[in-house]
């Protein structure tokens, strides 16, 4: 039996199941599945939330993959309400200084 956390929704289980069965997938593809009955923006928010808690990981361009933690949850081996990850993986983001030369401000 799965033990979800208060922050989770029924869609989280379905998204994780989809990722486990289909491998890395873009948010749009997940949302188009007949098993998932919510919009693409909702799937995107849920995938982000799952990533914040270590159940998924973003691999780039809106593509997510299930993590070992997510697989353990689906198998009923992890109580999401009690078990918090030691280190939550960070979402991919572009550095603010990328492509800029440091120390030049034009004055």
Automatic annotation (TrEMBL):
Q: Which InterPro entries match?
A: ArsR-like_HTH (IPR011991), AsnC-type_HTH_dom (IPR000485), WH-like_DNA-bd_sf (IPR036388), WH_DNA-bd_sf (IPR036390)
The HTH asnC-type domain is annotated at: 12-50
Q: GO molecular-function annotation terms?
A: sequence-specific DNA binding
The superkingdom of the source organism is Archaea
Specify where the region named Disordered lies, as residue ranges: 79-107
Task: Give the compositionally biased regions (Basic and acidic residues).
Answer: 89-101
Against CDD domains, the record matches this protein to: HTH_ARSR
Name the record gives this protein: AsnC family transcriptional regulator
- Which species does this protein come from? Halomarina oriensis
